Amino acid sequence: MAAFRTFLRSGHAPTLGAAFLYFAFSCCIWVLNGALAPFISEAYQLTAAQKGLMLSIPIMAGALMRFPLGVLSQYIGRKNATLVEMALIAVAMGYGFFMVKGYDDLLAMGVLLGIAGASFGVALSLGSGWYPPKYKGLAMGLVGAGNVGTAVSVLVAPPLAQWLGWQTVYAVAGAAILVPMLVMIVFAKEPPDVDSHAGLRSHMACLFEKDGWAFSLIYAVTFGGFIGLITFLPTYYYDQFGVSKVQAGQLTMLAAFMGAAVRVMGGWISDRWGGVNTLTVVLVAVTVTLLLVGLAGGSLVATTLLLIACFAALGAGNGALFQLVPLRWPAATAVAGSMIGEVGALGGGLVPNLMGLSKQYAGTYFWGFAIFAALSLLMLGVMRLMQIRWTRTWAERGGRARAPAADSHGAAARAPSHGRAYEAR
Q: How many angstroms from the chain centroid is the CA of residue 223?
């Protein structure tokens, strides 16, 4: 506890708290169509493929909007960028309440929900900006735990929809976003680390290296699987097991909360055991549990327990991957992490589409789970192949941080960054 108080005093705790709340509310709204999917599909009699497309659009739109929001934050400041985004979210919720009348409107609403999904990079940068390098990982982990908002969404939205009507939930969300806006205005302060800002060239540079693509694709499995499954599971529970719409949300919440809670632990374990070792276990666990979920379609209990285990692995994988990012790009962690998060989040859009197409054309959800499990196994092979070079250049065996070498005067010599192309100019 004393160590945690030392950590809090080393930065600006009110800004950290405001960033967490902002990210949690954003995640809650980002997956709102997923939480409401059983109500929406019943209202418009959607096919399985239509459901999949509807649920994938907010994920992909959110991923694509991360970069523009990050650029905006460099011009007007991170705090102001969050306020602009939350104001746009409130407007988007007004569109959902007043304007959604059919399936095409739902697709447009999915794009608008993507505004909330753009919050990741700015939230982490704002929350960690006041903290010294030795505490930035913990600060980012605590803000990142705001993805627990996804669990809140699937727990709270269905009862509200049953009570008030599903479109009214958009209005409630639009009013609720005023809470983190007020907290941000009153308590948050713009961090002083302005020199960490980077331009378009620095952001895009990550995509021109094999390691950047490897990290992004692994993240497409871990975080993409996390957000994609959360969005789809209320529909899966409702269609596959015939539970009530509220129960579907409650069952999804169990898995979502596990994934959010274990994220910080994944980073902590990786610091001690190594990110590559941790991700190896994670990707094996994801592969096995997803295949078993596909085969356990007749058992609600087995499916729920397997999904909880799968989400624990996905959450740990998200933390483990971002333990490796500062080792690979020590001079440009925020820049590389932002692009990896952006590209990786696009993987989440695959999940609802795979599930919907599998159900519509094969009559079962199994092939959706199986294909994503195969992608997890493929990424395991890619990582194990590439880690041979990683452990020769910038990491210890297993993906642990290298101890700084001592120079001839006994001082710690600075290790090569392997990421100079990403330094902000």
A: 5
CATH of the domain at 149: 1.20.1250.20
Q: Which tokens is 112 given?
A: 């608008």
Q: What is the pTM of this model?
A: 0.88
Poorest-confidence range of 297-306, 339-348, 410-419?
Answer: 410-419
The answer to whether 332 and 202 have CB atoms below 8 angstroms apart is yes
Residues 6+ apart with CB under 8 A from 167: 96, 97, 100
C-beta atoms surrounding 217 within 10 Å: 19
Single-letter amino acid, residue 205: A
State the CB neighbour count (10 A cutoff) for residue 91.
11
Select from 388, 219, 235, 225 the least CA-distant residue to 311: 225
Over residues 302-332, the pLDDT tens digits come to 999 999 999 999 999 988 898 888 788 776 6
DSSP string, 46-59: --HHHHHHHHHHHH
Tell me which residue range forms the domain holding 191. 11-400
CA dist 376 to 76, 109, 421, Å?
A: 39, 30, 29
Cα 85 off chain centre by: 17
pLDDT digits (tens, 9 = 90+) for 87-118: 999 999 999 999 999 999 999 999 999 999 99
Tell whether 42 is covered by a domain: yes
Residue 319 CA to residue 42 CA, distance in Å, equals 37
Number of domains in the chain: 1
Residue written as tokens 């490796």? 324
415 in any annotated domain: no
Q: Does residue 266 contact residue 218 with C-beta atoms inside 8 Å? A: no
Type of residue found at 352: P
Residue 340 lies in a domain: yes
